[in-house]
Amino acid sequence: MTKKKKTVGKTDADVILIGAGIMSATLGVLLKELEPNLSIEIYERLDIAAAESSDAWNNAGTGHSAFCELNYTPEKKDGTIETKKAVQIAEHFEVSKQFWSYLVEKGLISDPENFIRKIPHMSFVWGKKNVDYLKKRYDALQKCDLFAEMQYTEDIETVAQWAPLIMDGRKKSDKVAATKMDLGTDVNFGSLTRDMFNNLKEQSNVNLFFNHEIRDLKKNNDGNWVVKVKDLETKDKRKRVAKFVFIGAGGGSLPLLEKSDIPEGKGFGGFPVSGQWLKCTNEEIIKKHHAKVYGKAAVGAPPMSVPHLDTRMINGKQALLFGPYAGFSTKFLKNGSFLDLPKSIKFNNIRPMISAGLHNLDLTKYLIEQVRQSPEDRLAALKEYLPTAELKDWELEYAGQRVQVIKKDEKKGGILEFGTEVVNAGDGSIAALLGASPGASTAVSIMLELLTRCFKEDLETPEWQAKIKEMIPTYGKALANDSQLCKETRTRTSRVLKIDVDKAVEV
Questions:
Q1: Contact 406, 268 (CB under 8 A)
Q2: What is the pTM of this model?
Q3: Using CA atoms, how far apart are residues 350 and 394, in angstroms rounded to an integer?
Q4: Which fold, 4-64+82-119+184-494?
Q5: Residues 283-303: pLDDT tens digits?
Q6: What HEC string does 249-279 produce?
């Protein structure tokens, strides 16, 4: 950490990571691999790692790779399909798989089947307009090697073979279409996160503190950061000094970014969106579905609310979810406070927040409708994907909170961003991650971007360059434009992560 070593004054740690989710875990492991002597302290307000957005029940994105998520391929006004975001996300997910493969090969995390399994990714639509869209989407994505193995069909029998439940009870006269990618995976980011933290705890100069809340951050004149910490069990308070701070606290990142008072953090706001699932309780139904089936979102719906009938592996057991249904809460975290939203409003972000609200009235209307839904309304939405569904086979499960980013915009005053945003001080001494989807699936690429911003001098050294290329062999190369490299990379990661191995599961 050549740049950080230029600071003067006594420090307690080289790095402080706030929040024990997938982002902090990824950054912590990356930094420790790049510089083993680094001292790191991690603070988490709950009593376990990955209990908020990274948890399997809370996380809407259990392996986002843009194979089936239609919101990443919008139809433009001229009728063409925009594929830029889908290609970027698919490539970033391949980067994540390379990093996880490195961790498995080095024995830094346990058996990969604890967190990743093969599961087909499907898109499914009905009605002529939507079928036309899906065909155009398929044709557009076929131009990119990352999607070369995608299959497309409008044949009812073929769709029924791919996912029997979604065709059972459907009219044969219905016009439907589907795409399928057998390369899809299901990732339990809660399990992966805990695996990475378990490894970090065993390394020298790494300390992980649960039930500890960050109360304030302040930059010293010597360039170091003073972090005020409260032990929620003993109520003791103390100050810790570090050269670099990462705020990876999910919905809790915005309030801490505001406390840091860095100029780059001015003008950001947050719009919280909560989620709910219908969880299947009928084991016979769960056994019959083995795919992630995504459809089209309702007008005004945020990306996290794209409806899907989702097979997941949670603690080695197969589960089936439908949703998520969106809701509204002023909390920024599932275990947060109802005062989170009002307390986040500052003089510098009032205008962007009001402007973003005025420009997203469809979203407001959608959330009101979602909050007012009855169990029968939720069942009606489920029946569009599973025509024979009965309410007795499903129960409501509360998911996590997402805080969408609101940022200043010269033309509109403020815009609502459906993605992730890295905000860092100009000197690279502190950084925060705001936003949500696709989040966890692209965590490695997001943290590599953070390294380019906050550890630029270190990153340019031959030692760091060589190590990063060892962890991520395609670093600096574009898989989207190299069919041979894409194939070789996927073959290797599938072997190491045991993605192609059929695994017995408990239902």
A1: yes
A2: 0.91
A3: 41
A4: FAD/NAD(P)-binding domain (3.50.50)
A5: 999 999 999 999 987 665 555
A6: CHHHHHHHHHHHCCHHHCCCEEEEEEEEEEE
